[in-house]
């Protein structure tokens, strides 16, 4: 069997709150294979976002390790870590995190510009992705001119612009009504198959989590 795409080993993470330390993750272990589809289910405040941030290299573990293709993220310098995040990992957040001054096309292109992809091919790729997520006619609209579901589709296209091997989606339906949310989940599942990428989705919704090929439950800092 091939090596896992990503491995979390005894991940521990806490946060200081005044004089107290809040233990969020307490020895979490998990493996994510190439083209995997994993849902991390847990109540609000269980630490799902914290875990996804650690898996994506947006934050550092207190102890334990996160390994991406056998590379310990904790051993990488800031430049190496930024490069890996930009090229290998796509992020989709509950709050979309689009730049309000940029239109949809410009938002989708941003990660490609950071990686210095040629402008012409980057524009073509962004056009293709916006068409794929159903926004071909909305490329010149700014976030304030788009619905929540449309903004999330822009965010998904942006996450895919550099052809990552892993997509991390943190409560991607949290700000959406149930119908729009189900459409977003269906789109993520289709894109995961189409582009042969691994998808890890954090959700508090059991119905959404149940659609994944694997589901783990985060409770009291542990995965079950």
Task: Please provide a written account of the structure.
The model has no long low-confidence stretch (mean pLDDT 95). This protein has 224 residues and is an alpha/beta fold. The longest helix is centred in the C-terminal third of the chain and has 18 residues. A hairpin with a 2-residue loop joins β1 and β2. A six-stranded mixed beta sheet has the order 6-7-8-3-9-10, sandwiched between helices. Strands 2-1-4-5 form a four-stranded antiparallel beta sheet, covered by helices on one side. The protein contains seven helices and ten strands. α3 runs parallel beside α5. It has a single domain, classed as Rossmann fold, CATH 3.40.50.
Order of helices and strands: EEEHEEHEHHHEHEHEE
Largest sheet: 6 strands, mixed
Shape by Cα distribution: globular
In whole angstroms, the N-to-C terminal distance is 24 Å
């Amino acid at each position: 069997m091939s090596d896992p795409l990503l491995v979390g080993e005894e991940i521990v993470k806490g946060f200081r709150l005044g004089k107290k330390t809040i233990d969020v993750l307490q020895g979490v272990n998990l493996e994510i294979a190439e083209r995997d589809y994993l849902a991390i289910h847990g109540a609000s405040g269980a630490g799902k976002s914290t875990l996804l941030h650690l898996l994506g290299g947006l934050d550092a573990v207190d102890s334990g390790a996160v390994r991406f293709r056998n590379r310990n993220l904790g051993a990488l310098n800031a430049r190496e870590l930024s490069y890996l995040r930009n090229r290998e990992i796509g992020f989709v957040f509950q709050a979309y995190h689009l730049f309000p001054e940029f239109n949809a096309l410009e938002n989708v292109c941003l990660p490609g510009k950071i990686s210095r992809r040629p402008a012409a091919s980057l524009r073509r790729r962004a056009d293709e992705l916006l068409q794929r997520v159903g926004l071909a006619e909305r490329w010149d609209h700014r976030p304030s001119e788009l619905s929540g579901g449309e903004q999330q589709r822009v965010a998904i296209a942006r996450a895919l612009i550099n052809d990552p091997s892993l997509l991390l989606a943190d409560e991607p339906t949290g700000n959406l009504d149930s119908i729009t949310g189900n459409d977003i989940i269906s789109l993520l599942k289709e894109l995961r198959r189409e582009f042969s990428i691994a998808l890890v989705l954090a959700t508090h919704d059991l119905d959404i989590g149940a659609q994944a090929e694997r589901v783990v439950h985060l409770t009291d800092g542990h995965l079950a």
